[in-house]
Amino acid sequence: MSQPFEGWAPAVRVSVVMPTYDQDRFLPGAVASLLAQTESSWELIVVDDGSPGDTRTALGDALDDVRVRLETFDRNRGLGAALNRGLDSARGEYVAYLPSDDVYYGSHLASLVDALDGAPEATVAVAGVRHHQVRTSPGRIEGEPLQLVQVAHRRTAQRWIERSELTTDDLDGMLWERLLGDKPPIETGVVTCEWGWHPLQRHKVLREPWGGLNPYRARYRVREPLCLHSTVGHLHDEVEHYRQFRQRPSTPRATDGLRVLLVGELAHNPERILVLEERGHELHGLWTDTPVWFNTVGPMPFGHVSDVPRDGWRDTVRRLQPDVIYALLNWQTIRWAHEVLSADLSIPFVWHFKEGPFFAREHGLWSALVDLHTRSDGVIYSSPELRAWFAATVPASAQCPTLVIDGDLPKGEWLAGERSPLLSRHDGAVHTVIPGRPMGPEPEVVAALAEAGVHVHLYSAKAAAQMRSWVTEVQRLAPAHFHLHPQVDQAQWVSEFSRYDAGWLHSFRSDNRGDPYAATWDDLNYPARMGTLAAAGVPMIQRDNTGSMVATQALARERDLGVFWNGADDLIAQLGDRDRMAMLRQSVWNQRADFTFDAHADRLVGFLGEVVARRRSTPG
After folding, report:
1. CATH 3.40.50.2000: which residues of the chain?
2. Partners of 329 in the beta sheet?
3. In whole angstroms, what is the distance from residue 388 CA to residue 27 CA?
4. What is the pLDDT of residues 104-153, one digit of tens each?
């Protein structure tokens, strides 16, 4: 009898593809559940997607089983690429999936094989699944795509969408829809597997509000710009959005240019920081590793910022010798900024803070925040009211040199383009806009406006998923006057939002009566949408909080930027005053450049330079 050639393996019924990334503690349990299957004709293809851990060690003795193979990427390439590597290596008649943080029950593979064997016309078989720890579903989980662990299909030439095309948690769109075509899957109806449930699951890292683009980038150490669209958010196409900035040549460092180490995150409108690079300042980034969706971290998708690796960062920073550390911006970076401040690097340190002191208290970060406001060489506040609040509640902060610049201002280039004709010129009705999540007005107010013929247009792909109750109620109360639109990015701000008579800031009632100790975050904040509306020349709607310390109210009154209302009837009357609204619209348009980062960059650079000079002139 002849011997099989080297590399020969007997035919298998099922190729099981296991993508894994940083799941060393889960992986042995997943493999053990496969080894316990009643169906033994399988092969396991483990694809290590550039994991920071040691997947080979985690597999242990399982690698002694001839049915188990390990494929490895040198860096993370994304779920689609890992699954495709498995499909390319598969030799089985059928393909199943076992993510390394999921498990099979003993009869799982056998039940899927039986289902496909018994239905030659079917392409895909689906098992019942346990999920959310204790819930079960006989097939698809409500509100979710079919999960990898519950699916088996015939081997196919079709391949998963990869990161270079789109990053998403929509597994249906990544492959299932193309595999199924117009044929429904065959369902076993029996729960034979478990979809794991823990904070670092890929779909959670992808979904806002606590996941999203920036948590995904940090978690998977993504170096390139992303085109990302989660099932609960809007499309983030960094590839196209930042192309014009990324393709620009770097600016040589000016003779008096600063070497600036950015520490933390850049929040909304992160490309604003390029204004400093374009003026001859050298930028480096040392980013927080636990961002939320709006905490933009590197590598920057627009380039021109060199990253400092987290491993051994102290020695790297000492060798780099930046002129100044510019730490920013929101409460999620407090812990990391404080660690850098406390490292005793002998480098001037400036702290720029926005959102928000009350969240810092809630999350146990108050002590670190006080240190940042009292031990830094300079502090930048996002509004005069926030500075006044800290002077009252942390008196020692008043001794530190300070500056006021809103931290979320957009880059000036987004102001390009001409205004569009008002919608009201076509139908005679008043049209208002909410650019982003609906932070008010109350549904009853929208209903009262609708009765007077005033429309409300909401631009937010996230609202339907994250603020469903508000959207549903408003749709019920004002079906003909409430309009839901997809999110638009900065390049469309002018053309899209300039069509509206007015735009909504956050709607809230303030009762602090001018007492900083009684102020809330709503009182102290400049919401990012203020810059959005200003860019398009749109008058801003906010409640009349006369007598209270409210940042948006003080700024809008000083500059004549909007409408202040008490009750729906008052607002309807003001919006109907065409002459006054036209004057407001022109006032906002004339001042819109002041709501860009460019307008304040020289003040920022001057402040950083003063901090550097003061430190250098201080003995010792």
Report:
1. 242-410+602-612, 413-595
2. 353
3. 52
4. 999 999 999 999 999 999 999 999 999 999 999 999 999 999 999 999 99
For 376-424, write each residue's pLDDT tens digit: 999 999 999 999 999 999 999 999 999 999 999 999 999 998 999 999 9
What is the rounded distance in angstroms from the CA atom of residue 447 to the CA atom of residue 120?
A: 55
| CATH number of 242-410+602-612, picked from 3.40.50.2000, 3.40.50.300, 3.30.230.10, 3.90.950.10 | 3.40.50.2000
pLDDT digits (tens, 9 = 90+) for 304-334: 999 999 999 999 999 999 999 999 999 999 9
Name which CATH class applies to 413-595. Answer: alpha beta
**pTM of the predicted model as reported, rounded to 2 decimal places:** 0.93
d(CA 175, CA 591): 49
Sole residue written with tokens 């003001």: 574
User: Positive or negative, the Cα torsion across 25, 26, 31, 37?
Assistant: positive
Q: 512 to each of 148, 398, 546, how far by Cα in Å?
A: 52, 21, 10
Six-digit token string for 42: 């399988």
CATH architecture of 14-203: Alpha-Beta Complex (3.90)
Q: Would you tell me how many other CB atoms lie within 10 Å of the CB of residue 327?
A: 26
Sign of CA dihedral 209, 215, 49, 40: negative
DSSP string, 348-379: -EEEEE-S-HHHHHHTT-HHHHHHHHHHSSEE
Listed as own residue / partner, the contacts of 413-417 with beta carbons closer than 8 Å and 24 or more positions apart are 414/490, 414/491, 414/493, 414/494, 414/535, 414/596, 415/494, 415/535, 415/592, 415/593, 415/596, 416/494, 417/494, 417/495
